[in-house]
Amino acid sequence: MAEPTLRDVALLAGVSPRTVSNVVNGYAQVSPQTRAKVEKALEQLDYRPNVLARNLANGRSGQVAVVVPYLDTPYFAELLQAIIPRVRARGFNVLVDQTDGDRAHEAELIRRKARGFLYDGMILSPLGLSQADLAGRDPDLPLVILGERSSDGAFDHVGIDDVAASCEAVTHLLSLGRRRIAAVGDQPYATGEAAQRRTAGYRLAHERAGLPVDESLIVQTPRFNRVDGATAMARLLDRPDPPDAVFGYSDLVALGAIRVLLERGLRVPEDVAVVGYDDIEDGRYSTPSVSTISPDKSTIAEAAVDRLLRRIESRGPVTGEEFVVPWTLVARESTVGRGAP
Amino acid sequence: MAEPTLRDVALLAGVSPRTVSNVVNGYAQVSPQTRAKVEKALEQLDYRPNVLARNLANGRSGQVAVVVPYLDTPYFAELLQAIIPRVRARGFNVLVDQTDGDRAHEAELIRRKARGFLYDGMILSPLGLSQADLAGRDPDLPLVILGERSSDGAFDHVGIDDVAASCEAVTHLLSLGRRRIAAVGDQPYATGEAAQRRTAGYRLAHERAGLPVDESLIVQTPRFNRVDGATAMARLLDRPDPPDAVFGYSDLVALGAIRVLLERGLRVPEDVAVVGYDDIEDGRYSTPSVSTISPDKSTIAEAAVDRLLRRIESRGPVTGEEFVVPWTLVARESTVGRGAP
DNA sequence: CTGAAAGCGCTAACAA
DNA sequence: TTGTTAGCGCTTTCAG
Q1: What residue segments make up the domains of chain B, in order of their start?
Q2: Residue B74's closest CA among B302, B251, B247, B246?
Q3: CA nearest to A293, candidates A215, A179, A176, A201
Q4: Using a CB-CB distance cutoff of 8 angstroms, which residues of chain A are in contact with residue B71?
Q5: Which ranges of the sequence are coiled-coil (chains A, B) (predicted)?
Q6: Of A94, B11, B73, B317, which one's alpha carbon is 20 to 30 angstroms from that of B264?
Q7: How far is C-alpha B23 from the chain's CA centre?
Q8: B203 touches chain A (CB under 8 A)
């Protein structure tokens, strides 16, 4: 049984498709009588507009792509959870994709050929993308980049100041009297910019405190997961001069590290204090709860969606904006022990 | 600068749009010479098909909606992570939405009017949906329901046998000698079917063991989050006759309960053993790690996607299938202590 | 194997 | 205010 079309409604109501369209979309002025007639026909046929046809006629898909590296990483899941309702509230649908942090995949997504008018814009949280990849992107694609990368002026960027935040996290540990602070998560290669900013913050904190950095305490991990934190921590504890504190580049890294510390009978924070990054929910209810850098996710989502839709709706190119989101250091049990908030 | 269309390519190549379409889609046989000409033109113009137009002509959107209650709940995030690549591998895009477990929202999504050919089918993981809501759904929408609800024959259903799994979880606790096992997460009202099946399994385990059920140990929680587990656990411990084991209706509930137990200085599992449900990653790295019912998420995703796409591709109605996915009980530290796998 | 042409269902410029 | 009509860009039937 074929779906009723605008035409069917028009025929039934004895008006033109144009008028029905006006009624459906609330355009222009329609006389009350006509409107009533049309609405009755609409009702009678149980008409629902065909979005596909509308999209084609409009030249817009009404869809926005949101792309993150991993959906099952709590930070990105929480971010997505914040973004989706906001996009939908503005009348757009959300197409979701994950890249597994694969640089080629990320680069492909923003390249010209990839899109086929399937989405009107994209919010991308890249992991491996290089500046060169960004340079080769589709210049007509409204794009908001999330995370630790500054805009080159042609797309919007939303994120927190990672260097400052990392510096604060490490300063917190220093202020607790810790002097052998491990930095867990460095990635000193092209696709590790996010990690490198945290390392920069780590160095900055030491510098400001007039303390030297023990390079051997800066540990690399392939990713920012629990297993990475666990593996790194185990290695650190096997050294003759283990650290008395850990700055994990994500809360998952911190949780993995804590897991190993407790397994080895060490106390957190008494023996080793740990601070993480992201403020995911897991860290709030773990034992001990995890001190962390808490980026304001609502603000990030709000800003990203707002920037993107503004750009889509204004069509033509707009100059890229840099939007720096506030963050806070949340001190929980993993650094200040029981009685922490 | 307007995008090149099929027509432009045809003009440049000196053939008809029909032929270009054939080449682009690999349809029919095209003579090598013609093909070469067309491909050159394609290349030259950097042509990319307009998906919107193609969709309209095909009467299909090439999109699948995947709807879960909460994106930031690890179980659903992990499920989504498993589903998305599989859908994309079959050439479809994924539209994601979350319902916040709101029954009205869920019911609306499967109602006739909601869709506008925007998606060709839906995978829905309902929380509050009633049988009546399901009865009122759009009969033409290919639908796969995930979770604890049996099919009425007109849609597919994929899930594990919750009663059996819950029974096994509780039997595990009984086999460890526990006799005062709390069940945390019951929801004895219309929208709590999922919870009720777990409770049924809890009862069944006792029945099989020939043991009575202490009704006061079956505790209700509004949701299955950490905070619910924590709150319930606190109340249980305030009783004069606290439990010696807990069956949490999700791993989050279990983690929340463990958190409170440790805070109060109790040992897990020595004083109180805890088992959860879902096998989320958090439970594997927490201290102690959480024993749990592990549904086979890959199989769930695989089955759901396969059923849905099969239905979409075969168009006409197919009889609904019930697909029962295997699960396992994973005994970790929260029940068997250190040395657990 | 390829061309001509009729839609898919909706929007919107142009008329009336 | 409302009707007429020409697309949006692609697919596909029917000829040739």
Answers
A1: 6-49, 57-160+296-324, 162-295
A2: B251
A3: A201
A4: 71, 77, 80-81, 84
A5: none
A6: B73
A7: 39
A8: no
Q: Which CATH class is domain A57-160+296-324?
A: alpha beta
**Which CA distances in Å does B68 have to B46, B63, B76, B188?**
38, 16, 7, 22
* CA pair distance A279, A287, nearest whole angstrom: 15
User: What is the phi-psi region of residue B112: left when phi exceeds 0, alpha when psi lies from -120 to 50, beta otherwise?
Assistant: alpha
| pLDDT surpassing 70 at residue B212 | yes
Amino acid identity of A115?
Answer: R
Mind listing the pLDDT tens digit for each residue in B9-68?
988 888 888 899 988 888 767 788 888 888 898 998 989 899 999 999 988 999 999 999
Which chain D positions have some atom within 7 A of a protein CB?
A: 1-5, 7-13
Cα separation, A313 vs A120, whole angstroms: 9
Give the pLDDT score at A252.
97
- The model's pLDDT over B139-168, given as tens digits with 9 standing for 90+, comes to 888 999 998 666 666 788 999 999 999 999
**Domain B6-49 CATH (choose: 3.40.50.700, 1.20.1510.10, 1.10.260.40, 1.10.10.10):** 1.10.260.40
Residues of chain A found within 8 Å of residue B70, distances taken between Cβ atoms: 81
* Mean pLDDT (chain A, rounded): 91
Size of chain A, expressed as the number of residues it contains: 341
How far is the C-alpha of B270 from the C-alpha of B76, rounded, in Å? 31
Instruction: Report the SS3 class of residue B144.
Output: strand
Q: Looking at domain B162-295, does it have CATH number 3.40.50.2300?
A: yes
Domains A57-160+296-324 and A162-295 share a fold: yes
Average pLDDT over every residue of A249-269: 97
Q: Is the pLDDT of residue B114 over 70?
A: no
- pLDDT of A113 reads 60
Helix (H) or strand (E) holding B98: strand B93-98
Residue-averaged pLDDT of chain B: 91
User: What Cα–Cα distance (Å) separates residue B93 from each residue in A47, A62, A119, B238?
Assistant: 26, 14, 11, 51
**Does the distance separating the beta carbons of A95 and B63 come in below 8 Å?**
yes
pTM value is 0.92
Mutation for B interface: A112, A287, A315, most B CBs within 10 A: A287
User: How far is the C-alpha of B335 from the C-alpha of B55, rounded, in Å?
Assistant: 53
B76-108 pLDDT, tens digit per residue, is 999 999 999 999 999 999 999 999 888 888 888
Cα R_g (chain B), whole angstroms? 26
pLDDT, tens digit, 9 for 90 and up, residues B191-200 = 888 999 999 9
Residue A66, token pair as written in the block: 């949101």
